[in-house]
Design a protein that fits this description.
The structure holds 2 protein chains of 2 kinds.
Chain A: H1 10-29, H2 33-68, H3 70-108, E1 118-125, E2 134-137, E3 150-153, E4 156-164, E5 169-173, E6 180-185, E7 191-197, E8 200-206, E9 220-223, E10 236-244, E11 253-258, E12 267-271
Antiparallel strand pairs in A: 1-2, 1-12, 2-5, 3-4, 3-12, 4-5, 6-7, 6-9, 7-8, 8-11, 9-10, 10-11
Chain B: H1 2-19, H2 33-45, H3 47-62, H4 71-87, H5 97-119, H6 128-156
Helix pairs in contact in B: 1-3, 1-6, 2-3, 2-4, 2-5, 2-6, 3-4, 4-5, 5-6
Classes of the chains: A alpha+beta, B mainly alpha.
């Protein structure tokens, strides 16, 4: 164990490191390309070792998940069985409507989200830190995944690519506090913006065009896809689960649950959409 | 030679932090291995080495976080320096020192990280959930410190001067 003897020569070194840290924070906040390249290089360098560790320890993490999440899995199972039963009946009724819609879309040559191509990727790991909602996937700029691409899974929107190196990409999830998604409601077609809340998987609906719109519990939210939006239109996002209309408040407090289970993703798809704000790396 | 050991220490902990522990969360919290290692280095080598190691380790893990580069570097530098000064006042070592320092350091470092990240512009950090996450992560840090402190002791090698 070292014994500390006060030495004024040590303090300039510490002060220098503090100043360097502050400079780096400022540069990164201004989206400095050099810092982004540094991050990408570090991620690509560690990627092969991460893959090896993931391969060795995935049985351990599966056992850990099995022990810590068994109650939740049983509840999910029962809930999903009930939901399937209801959906099967609804599917039969809506088959006829879907057929008419497809014919109309083809006749009018309207682009559909089903037409969009993309890159399928495997989710490698969750966030390394405790205060972010991100995922890392095993594809990067080398496979056509670039910053700004929207990410979807089977049931709906997952998030968008916020960082990408040659072999890896980071997705910020839709329930992250810093990410908002422009949506419209299913029935009343009101436009609003979802806002993630720290520590809560539910999304708050804000910036509603008409606060008195008849939004109901159970109503679905789809991406609005306005001009300049990062997301194409009509991707399912969430379902309204709670509405609190308190007297005196201008806007109702509306909470929605993402349709995709963001904590159990194995595979996702990065969409190639021409109208997104996706940023290709310099030099490809 | 010591530099090579420090390098191996940092790389190993970064790989474990990014590849293994995201899947081993308890109540949504994972331990902060690089922070625990910074405290261990400060305990073994004093404030200047602790601060330098904290800066390098913080920069390394910042490359894999969504927060701005430099947030962890700043927080870990201050924790490394502070614990290096603090350990000078400890009159004897104990086998409980590792989990005690790991847990206390996790608590102080966790709140310091939240404060620095919030000033740097990260949203949604001043919530009750964030406080709970810091406490749970600190408990987890206390447990992993039992493994991290011996690893750090190996990396640090023989002390330049030792008083036990």
């Amino acid at each position: 164990m070292a014994v500390y003897r006060p030495d004024s020569r040590r303090r300039p070194v510490v002060v220098l490191m503090v100043i360097t840290s502050l400079v780096l924070i400022t540069l990164d906040r201004r989206e400095n390309g050099t810092i982004a390249a540094l991050r990408g290089t570090a991620r690509d360098a560690v990627a092969p070792v991460q893959d090896a560790v993931d391969g060795v320890f995935s049985p351990v993490s599966n056992v850990f998940d099995g022990v810590t999440k068994v109650d939740g899995l049983e509840r999910d199972n029962a809930r999903l069985r009930a939901r399937i039963a209801g959906l099967e009946g609804k599917l039969s009724r809506e088959r006829g409507i879907a057929d008419e819609y497809s014919q109309l879309v083809r006749l009018l040559d309207i682009p559909d989200v089903e037409d969009v191509t993309g890159v399928v990727a495997r989710v490698i790991t969750g966030p390394a830190g405790n205060f972010e909602r991100t995922l890392t996937i095993n594809k990067g700029t080398g496979q056509g995944v670039i910053v700004g691409m929207p990410i979807v899974a089977g049931d709906g929107l997952v998030g968008k690519v916020t960082e990408a190196s040659r072999t890896r990409a980071t997705i910020t999830l839709i329930d992250s506090p810093g990410l908002g998604v422009g949506v419209r409601t299913e029935k009343s077609r009101e436009e609003a913006v979802t806002q993630g809340r720290s520590g809560d998987r539910l999304l708050r609906l804000g910036f509603i065009d008409n606060p008195r719109a008849p939004i109901a519990t159970g109503e679905l939210l789809f991406t609005a896809g306005v001009v300049g939006s990062a997301y194409p239109p009509d991707i399912p996002v969430a379902r309204v689960v709670r509405i609190d209309r308190n007297r005196g408040d201008l806007d109702p407090d509306i909470l929605a649950e993402p349709l995709v289970d963001l904590d159990k993703l194995l595979f996702v798809k990065a969409l190639r959409v021409a109208s997104t704000n996706a940023t290709a790396p310099a030099g490809g | 030679m010591r530099a090579v050991r420090y390098f191996l220490l940092v790389v190993t902990l970064v790989v474990l932090q990014t590849a293994l522990f995201p899947s081993l969360r308890l109540w949504g919290a994972a331990p902060d291995l690089l922070l625990v290692a910074t405290i261990a280095v400060a305990y073994e080598r004093g404030p200047q080495t602790g601060a330098i190691f904290g800066f390098v380790a913080g920069l390394a893990i910042d490359c894999f976080l969504a927060s701005p580069l430099g947030v962890s570097a700043l927080a870990f530098t201050l924790v490394g320096y502070g614990f290096g000064v603090f350990q000078g006042g400890l009159v004897r070592s104990s086998r409980w020192m590792a989990p005690l320092l790991g847990g206390l350091g996790g608590l102080v470092g966790g709140f310091l990280w939240v404060a620095v990240a919030a000033v740097a512009g990260q949203d949604g950090l001043f919530t009750g959930v964030a406080v709970r996450t810091v406490f749970v992560a600190a408990l987890y840090d206390a447990v992993v410190a039992l493994a991290v402190f011996p690893f750090v002791r190996w990396a640090c090698g023989e002390p330049e001067y030792a008083h036990r």
